[in-house]
Design goal:
InterPro entries: Glyas_Bleomycin-R_OHBP_Dase (IPR029068), Glyas_Fos-R_dOase_dom (IPR004360), VOC_core (IPR037523). The chain has about 140 residues and is an alpha+beta fold. It contains 2 helices and 10 strands, in the order E-H-E-E-E-E-E-E-H-E-E-E. The longest helix has 12 residues.
Length: about 140
């Protein structure tokens, strides 16, 4: 698998470093006065300073639940997802949109999922699968 790259807007680089580096545990890469790179589970995420950045509305619907569009995140194997979910649940400063749950239970593509917002209001979804072959199952 090769990593993807995503550039996204943030209001403040210092709070973004604390959240992605400290809360999510992302390694911090190169940076400047207007952007910073993070390693999000092997993918290159570039946070670009945009003080006017606004949160995405929760107007998408998946499995009967409203979710923000756009959103981004990572697909993880279940053990990694469970560790991340436990790490986030142990904190009292997480902006939860959807607490850890299982979606499509008993169906092809069954997945664990959680939604949070970063300090700039960007919506993140982390999915957990028992096998990566299930990611595109239908």
């Amino acid at each position: 698998m090769t990593p993807f790259h995503l550039a996204f807007p943030v209001r403040d680089l210092d709070e973004t470093r604390i959240f992605y580096g400290g809360v999510l545990g992302c390694a911090i890469g190169r940076s400047s006065a207007t952007w910073v790179d993070f390693d999000l589970f092997g993918h290159q995420m570039s946070a670009h300073l945009r003080p006017q950045a606004a949160p995405a509305p929760s107007d998408g619907k998946v499995d009967g639940i409203l979710v923000p569009i756009p959103h981004f995140g990572a697909v993880l194997l279940m053990d990694d997802w469970q560790r991340l979910a436990a790490r986030l649940e142990a904190r009292d400063d997480i902006d939860w949109l959807e607490r850890p749950m299982v979606r499509f239970k008993g169906e092809p593509g069954e997945q664990a999922t959680l939604f949070i917002r970063d300090p700039s209001g960007n919506a993140l979804e982390f999915k957990g699968f028992r096998s990566l072959e299930q990611v595109f199952a239908h």
